[in-house]
Amino acid sequence: MSLSHMDKHGRSKMVDVTSKSTTRREAYASGYIYMKSSTLELILSGNVEKGAVFEVARVAAIMAVKKTGDLIPMCHPLNVTAVDVDFAPEIDKSRIRIDVKVKLAGRTGVEMEALTGVGVAALTIYDMCKAVDKDMVISDIRLIEKSGGKSGTYRREE
């Protein structure tokens, strides 16, 4: 197995997807942000001074998905057709699970877009709550599932 972003001389390159066929491609990524229980309570009560944490983080994730090609050097700019962002507070673990699902019809996958969306959503939550909790930890950002393209379907086994 070789790295597709390197030419035969070891130089960086963007993968040529010109001859690939357009197929439906989807990716689902997930991650967590851990925080003090009082911070989670503040978010859930809607009393964070900077505003509606989940809605701001949702918009940030969508924007990040659309801008992934500008952020990650070898990613192609993509015409993303759908982004779903969900937040699942886990009170017993004092964390929020962030799920991002991305879809398009294209020549390359959307795994990086989904992963970037999770990361930026978590960073946005951190930014909105850092005044009350600087100990938050962003963790376990990972691809859960992807479909489409030459490599077919992948599902993480946990």
TrEMBL record:
- Reaction(s) catalysed (UniProt annotation): (8S)-3',8-cyclo-7,8-dihydroguanosine 5'-triphosphate = cyclic pyranopterin phosphate + diphosphate
Q: Where is this region: Disordered?
A: 1-20
Question: Taking every annotated instance into account, which residue ranges of this chain make up the domain Molybdopterin cofactor biosynthesis C (MoaC)?
Answer: 14-149
Q: Does the keyword Magnesium apply?
A: no
Q: Which Pfam families match?
A: MoaC (PF01967)
Q: Name one GO biological process term.
A: Mo-molybdopterin cofactor biosynthetic process
Q: In which pathway does it act?
A: Cofactor biosynthesis; molybdopterin biosynthesis
Q: Which InterPro entries match?
A: MoaC, MoaC_bact/euk, MoaC_sf, MoCo_biosynth_MoaA/MoaC, Mopterin_CF_biosynth-C_dom
Q: Tell me which residues this entry annotates as catalytic.
A: D127
What are the alphabetically sorted keywords of the record?
Lyase, Molybdenum cofactor biosynthesis
Q: Name one GO molecular function term.
A: cyclic pyranopterin monophosphate synthase activity
Question: Which domain of life does the UniProt lineage start with?
Answer: Bacteria
The record's note on quaternary structure and interaction partners says: Homohexamer; trimer of dimers.
The UniProt similarity line reads: Belongs to the MoaC family.
Which NCBIfam families is this protein grouped with? moaC, PRK09364.1
Q: What is this protein called?
A: Cyclic pyranopterin monophosphate synthase
What organism is recorded for this protein? Flexistipes sinusarabici
Q: Which gene encodes it?
A: moaC
